[in-house]
Amino acid sequence: MAGGHVKAIMFDFDLTLADSSNGIVECTRYALRAMGITEAERERIHSVIGLTLQGMFQTLTGNGETERADEFARLFVERADEVMVSSTQIYREVPDLFEQLRGQGINVAIVSSKFRYRIESILDAARLRPLVDLIVGGEDVQRRKPHPDALVLALTHLRVPAASAMYVGDHPVDAEAARAAGVSFVGVLTGTMSAEHWSARGERCVKAHVGELAQLVRGSERAGVSVADGHRP
Questions:
Q1: Which CATH number is associated with domain 2-19+89-229?
Q2: Which fold has domain 21-87?
Q3: Range with top average pLDDT, 39-43, 51-55, 150-154
Q4: Whole-prediction pTM
Q5: What SS3 state is found at 230?
Q6: H or E element at residue 11
């Protein structure tokens, strides 16, 4: 990242900016029940948050049939339209983080496999929509993470080069997408990945919570250190 200057920070949504786990567990179990499939344990569902809905189904069931995965996705969305917004809680550090980043002149974007309209509704409910410059959702690209397409689309809209951008996420697919897009990556600890897990993958991560990002960026730029090459825990 030339000169260590960050122009845009892009965030995953589920388990990165918000705890949507209760809604996702409810929608997953609803879809599986409707399909006559034994319900998955909460821990197993939690471990696949961040994958596409079809990917969640295939991982949870071991069933690779495209039609069944699409049926699961349809049923999941059907239930999500009823419960997801009300059951999602934005992490308490997020509003101040967004304010700080925008105060530093940094673009704030959300890039997620979650539907854009759903993210917009959750942000509207939390009165955070004005603090987000761009949202790229699952309906905006054909290939989802770990493919880089959504990140590349966001960079194009923001008119920011990959070398001046960062992606923040909770799941290994987020790190893989960032690498494929040529942007730096920082992991959070609100998913299933611990600091040790991120370190073992050679990835940077926050020490405690996502709110640390503003200070991390300021510290890197004051030191003239590229965020992409900074210290890894």
A1: 3.40.50.1000
A2: DNA polymerase; domain 1 (1.10.150)
A3: 150-154
A4: 0.89
A5: coil
A6: strand 8-11
